[in-house]
Structure formats: C-alpha cells, structure tokens
Amino acid sequence: MLLSQLTSSKITPQHFNRQALIYVRQSTLAQVRQNTGSTSRQYDLKQRALKLGWQPECIIIIDDDLGRSGTSALNRDGFQWLVAQVGLGLAGAVLCLEASRLARSCSDWYRLLEICALTDTLVIDEEGVYDPGQYNDRLLLGFKGTMSEAELHWIRQRMDGGKLAKAQKGELQQPLPVGLVYDPLGRIVLDPDEQIAGAVRLVFNLFDQYGSALAVVRHFNQQGLKFPTRPRLGSRESQHQQFLSQSQATPRWEPLKHGRVRSILHNPFYAGAYVYGRLRQIKTVETQKLDSPTKTRLVRLKPSEWPIVFLEHHPGYITWLQFLKNEQQLDQNRTYRFEERAGAIRKGAALLQGLLRCGKCGRRMRVNYLGNIQGPLYVCNEERIRFGGNMCQTIRGDGIDEAVARCFLAALQLAQLEISLAAIAQLETQAQQFEQQWKLSLERAEYEANLAQRRFMAVEPENRLVARSLEKDWNEKLARLEKLQQEYLAKAKLQAEVTSLSGEEREKILALAQNVPAVWYAATTTQAERKQLLRFLIKSVTLLKREEEGTVDLDICWQTEAHTVLKVKAPVLSCNKYRTDINLLDKVRQLAVDHTDGQILQILNEQGWKNSHGQPLSVARVRGIRRDFGIFLGSPERPGKLGISQRSDGRYTVEAVAKILQVDPSTVNDWCVAGRLDNVQLRKGGTRWIKLSSEEIAELGRSILRHKHKRN
C-alpha cells in the first residue's frame, strides 16, 4: 500500500469535522529573532493542513509559546490549551514540525499521546500522519519523543563538554567585568581607558580603607563620583567578536550602588585569576506553588569549592591574597549567623560591638540599648533563646569600653609618629583620587564635545536634515561639559576645605598624632571611626563577670594573637549605687526624736551631708527618707493636722494633755508658762511638748477636783 493511501486511510471525515491545531514554538527569544526560517516552516504547516482536506476556518495556529523552552509543560500556556482541546474531543489532528516542538519531556509527550488515543486525535508532522490509537504508530511516536528528549541532553552535554575542555585550559572566554577587556588576540588585559581603570582602583582602595561596601558607596555619592558600566551587546558574530565589540563600546556612567560594589569585590578576575564554575544550580520543590512546583536558583560557591582556578592568569587590580582578605571582610560584615562573625561596624555607642565574647559559653555577646540606661548593655542570652536556659551574663558596657580603650591607647603610644604620617598621607591620597577622577571625567566630556563639533563641521551646510541633528548633539555635549565643570568647581571647593593642608595644619596633625588620646576623645571623632581603629589592633575581647568579687576579667586578644588580661571593677547596679548611706539613716533617726524635718535638714546641710547623687538634701528628701525607712518624727511641725498627739519620747501635745485631764487647752498652756508642767518648745510660738507621768496626772487630777469644790 502506498504511503499516500495509508495516510488518507487514517484521516476520516470525523477528523475533518474537528479542529486542526498547529503548534508553533521556539525555545528562546533569540531564536525567534534570528532563526526566522524555522519559524516560517512551522507556520507553513497551515498549507499542509489545507492539502490534507481541512477547511481554513477549522485550522487554528497556536503560537503562544514562542520563546519558551519545551523541557516542561509548566509556563507553556499554548501547550496546555492544546492538551485541553484534545481532551475535550475538539481536535481532529495536532500538527507540528517535529516531536521536539511539542515536548522535550517524555512525561509530557506520552501524556499527550494517551489523550490523543482516547479522543481519536491524529498527530501529523512533516514526515507523515500518525494515529496514536494504533500500536505501530504509537510505538514510532514513542521513539520520536524519546529521541527528542535525548537530543536535548546530547546537545547540552556536547556544549558543556566543549566549554569545560576550554575552561580547563583557561581559554574559554567569559563576560568580563568593567575594567578588564579582551585584546584582539583574545587575552585579558586592563582597560586602557584611564578613567575606567581609576574608578575600579578607587573602589578597592576605599574598601581597604573603610572595610565596608556601603561606606564605599557613601564616599562615591558624597564626592559626586560615577562608576562605569558597559552594555551587553547581542550579536550573531563569534563570541570573541561579541566580547571585543563590548569592550570597545562607549561606557555609561551611573551612580555607584551597594550591589555593584559587592559584585566587584566578589569577582576574582580583578585579582588576575581565571575562574570557572563560581555558581551552581540547585533545584528545589515548592509544594505551595501548584503551577510551578520546582524552582531553580543559583548558589554562589566559596573560593575553596571553585572547580577551575588559574592564578596570575592575567593582569589584575589587586593580588589574590588581597582578594581573599576582602572575601573574609565581607563575610565578617554579614549579620547572618551572628555568633560566627563580628558584623559590619555600626554607629552605636557600643565600642566592643562584634568583638566581645562571653567568658562562660564562648559565644559572641549581643548589644542592647535601653532607654533608662545610659550607654550600651552587653548581653549573652543565646542559651536562653535556643534552649530556654538561663542568661549567661549581662553587664553595662560604659566601664568595660573605657578600660579596653585605655589599653588600646597605651598600645598606640609606640606608633605615634607612624600614625601622624599615615593621617597626612591619607588626606593627600583622598585629594589625589578626587582630582584624578574628576579630571578624567572632564577630559572625556571635552573629547565628546569636540567630536560632536567635528561631526557638525564635516556635514554639508545644505544638508539641513543631518546638520540639525548634529547641531543638537553638539549643544547637548557642550551643556553636559559645562554642567560637569560647575559640579567640579563646587566639589573641589568643598574638598579643598577638608583635605588641603597648610603648613600650620600639617603641624597640628603631627601634634595631635603625638597626643592620640586627645584625638580619640575629640568630639569630631565618630564612634564608628573609633571602632574601626580598635579592630585594626584587637581581634576579640573575652569577658567573665565575677559576682562574688565584684570584678570583671577582660582577656584582650590582639591581631598578633598576643593576649592582655585586665581586671576591672564591675559596674555597680543603680539600686546599689544610689542606695541611701547607712550613716545618714542613723543621723536622721537620731534627730527625728525631737526635731522637725526643717530642723533636721538644717543640721544635715551644716554638717555637709549629700544625697546618693551627690546633691544637697531638701525637706522633701528628708521626709522621703523617713517615709521609706519607717522613721517616726517625734516633733512634727503640725501634729494636730498629722493626727499625732504623742511623740516617740513620750511627750504629749497641749491638746492631748487637755483631753487626758479634761481641762481647757488654755489651762494647760498656763501651767506650762507657770512651770508646773515639764515642757519643751523648739521655736517661739511652736508646739509645746509636755512630759506627763502617771504621778503628775494623779496630782493634777486632785488639784482640779479641789478647784471645782471651791467654786461650788
């Protein structure tokens, strides 16, 4: 039987009554733009469907998946819609150029064939018509699907093998970072553009100075400096030609960002090393996302895990040792896994932030700031956070910081001259870097303006269509040059005020460096700068608090691995520091027997007593001491108002005696004046305190009765 007869026997009128679905797909957008021939061949399948007998209105072209990979049905809306139409029995045939267009995965391919067999849907490609319901056709289609999936892996294996073979020789060309370019022979060299190379060197110099990527960004932004970036060029030329064209493209200058600085510092090509395999793909399953349960992400490997590394492969901006040092510094700046790294320097008051370790458990101590406590609070609570245990140690940090600072300053006394010279050199270096970068920026802007002028002058005056555009470009370049000049003058004036040194200022710096403590405690020195200086010499400080002795042991580990042990007095708790003096309590208790609060205050101030804060006492404070410690005032100023009738020494007020003897208070006053009653009066017109015994009460009682009998 002829092939045409066999083909026609598989297609029945029932198939013509249903849709003919033509599936069009390209794996990448680059293939859609460049491989137009393959796309056209897939669209031409419409003519094949017409020749086979389908009507134009029954032919549907599905091209939703152009630019999408066929490795999975996920994120392929066109393929999913095609499967749905087949499953509903609306499709008579599925047309594709080859099996690889429909699926590169056997699971997706066999699922489609199973549904086609159930709904009597044909599969048609350039070579023939297949009925998945027939075993021979289904077996052949199965082979095609298997070969399609295997082809994908073969292609990838050959390409990856070729790349790996070249990479093992250090010959595989990779996209280079800004500051490195390929020469015509394919070798990696430093960018010949002085401005670009200077900007890259400045990033590494500033990071070496500050130790923080964010500090580098702040410096660039404060000085008004920009950083270059080169555009990625898409081309059908060879890879070497692409990279060469990219290195020759005009750079674009943009403000420096934190992520850009980190990518520069992490790139080993700047250290003259050729590295391949810095990233690794890891696939994870996300059960919460039903539409795409698998996720592929790139993980950055550690330098020790890189499979291919060639040191001193090409010229670099830093050495390999400097690169490893930068990697270590960046790792220490991370806040992830706090107990393993010191972290970046912050602006807080804690001088030992990131350096202090607990002497009990060895973990790094945290820093807390409480509103009612002046200064930082060092806390080791990892045991409680992780395992619900007890807190190891908690201590105020002001006294600890001061003790370590004194030890640090004492160590610096031996290097005062070197410090002074380094301070002057740093200011001069900053001024040179600022001047160099702005000079190159102005030079580039002037070149672009002159180039635009030459282009304008070279055009024929009659060709106004071109002349107008060139004139506009020339004016824009001139405006940009003028703007840069104005910015440079403003920045240069500010920079000169900061970095320019006269002879007198140079002598002052030398004098200040000879007195390091004055510089350390100066108001212009920030806490972040003090921490940076401290980390230059000190690696860590171990703290052990001895409660029974009231002391703290500090073990300072210097960068040279030498150790210095300090024993300082433990900070006194506020409740103990401001506790009322026991001698003052005894004095108040003694005076309260027969003195008022005002009289007690006068006596205490005359004797020089102070409160717990070192301030003079007040009546309110004296009254508060008596109230807090339960001291009864034997001579209140207004006993009647206070409800007091008897003093602690047994003396009564006039009113109390009058009630006891059942006489008028004036009678009691008369007896006091006449001397019949033992009384004391602390001040003229003040309260009389009367000593009254039981015998006196009996005698006065009889006298009162006799007086009443005489009147009667």
Automatic annotation (TrEMBL):
Residues 177-336 form the Recombinase domain. Transmembrane segments: none annotated. Residues 19-170 form the Resolvase/invertase-type recombinase catalytic domain. PROSITE patterns: RECOMBINASE_DNA_BIND, RECOMBINASES_3. InterPro entries: DNA_bind_recomb_sf (IPR038109), DNA_bind_recombinase_dom (IPR011109), Resolv_N (IPR006119), Resolvase-like_N_sf (IPR036162), SSR_resolvase (IPR050639), Zn_ribbon_recom_dom (IPR025827). GO terms for molecular function: DNA binding; DNA strand exchange activity. Coiled coil: none annotated. This is Recombinase family protein. It comes from Candidatus Chlorohelix allophototropha.
